[in-house]
Design goal:
- The structure is a single chain.
- The chain contains 13 helices and eight strands.
- By secondary structure, the protein is α/β, with parallel strands linked by helices.
- It has one domain: Rossmann fold, CATH 3.40.50.
- The protein has an eight-stranded mixed β-sheet, with helices on both faces.
- α4 packs across α5 and α6 crosses α9 (188-198).
- The longest helix is centred in the first third of the chain and has 16 residues, at 79-94.
- It is globular and about 45 Å long.
- It starts with a helix and ends with a helix.
- The mean pLDDT is 94.
Length: 285
């Protein structure tokens, strides 16, 4: 099975531009969508390239590249909302009626929102950190503050500090990873998306908007998630500390929680084997 970058890369035209994706697996009736997170230099391929071959053995896998991160065509709107609509456009374009989904951080929020608003499209949901409100930990977290500092005035040193906050084992932050992330982070579309999500001005505007809004935040609606849900978390996550898991664990009716020791925000990378085994058991239930 070819699971290289070029061997799996595909494109599909939609009514709002081209969506790039990676596809692997022969199990046509068992679709699994992998939804990436946010942050400097992120792409779906970089989040899940190490997991694709494993999950493609049992599922027809699609790594979806969200608009505005320098890969798929950018569209107007807030990145979390445009990511959700792009998943529906992607599924419609390929004729995928419903699918299991794995979402890392922002991708988990996208998956939760889809499960709330389009319950018939999400069969099962796996989230990796990032879902829910800070309960005992400070907000924004250490990792998000470092991300904000990088977004306001990008440089390599700030990128390294943020990357070190993403992992438990700093040996994962190699020179190759730093260079890869830096080159992608300075892409104009990616920089614009980052400013909308994490810049100081955008953060202050979002806080004011939430304070004045007359509707509840997405996490307060998680009781509407009907599909079986597996919440996965790194015990040492400094971006979305594990106390955040308490709200989705309680509010989502059919939720279970798996916390991985000696693991930061990238559970699918840092606890790869244990994560893959846990997700496989969940999807097989």
């Amino acid at each position: 099975m070819d699971v290289t970058y070029e061997g799996t890369r595909r494109e599909i035209a939609t009514d709002e531009g081209v969506i790039v994706y990676h596809e692997a697996g022969e199990h046509n009736d068992d679709a699994l969508l992998l939804l990436h997170g946010s942050g400097p230099g992120v792409t779906g391929w970089r989040n899940y390239r190490g997991n694709l071959e494993y999950f493609a053995r049992t599922h027809h896998c699609y790594i979806v590249e969200f608009p505005g991160f320098g890969v798929s065509d950018a569209v107007e709107g807030h990145p979390v909302l445009t990511a959700g609509s792009s998943v529906i456009r992607f599924m419609d374009a390929l004729g995928i009626e419903s699918a299991a989904m794995i979402g890392n951080s922002m991708g988990g929020v996208v998956g939760v929102n889809l499960a709330i608003k389009h319950p018939d499209r999400v069969r099962k949901l796996v989230t990796i950190g990032g879902v829910g409100p800070n309960i005992f930990s400070s907000s924004p977290s250490e990792g998000l503050r470092l991300l904000q500092e990088f977004t306001d005035a990008p440089d390599r040193d700030k990128l390294v500090r943020w990357l070190n906050a993403m992992v438990y084992d700093r040996a994962l932050v190699t020179d190759e990873l730093i260079e890869e992330r830096w080159e992608a982070a300075i892409n104009p579309d990616a920089a614009k998306t980052a400013a909308m999500m994490y810049g100081s001005a955008a953060f202050e505007m979002q806080q004011k908007f939430l304070a004045d809004a007359d509707f509840p935040p997405y996490w307060a609606m998680m009781h509407k998630v009907k599909c079986p849900t597996l919440l996965t978390w790194g015990r040492d996550d400094r971006v979305s500390p594990p106390d955040m898991s308490l709200a989705p664990m309680r509010l989502i009716p059919d939720a279970q929680l798996n916390i991985f020791p000696k693991c930061g925000h990238w559970v699918m990378i840092e606890a790869k084997a244990a994560f893959e085994a846990s997700v496989t058991a969940f999807l097989d239930q």
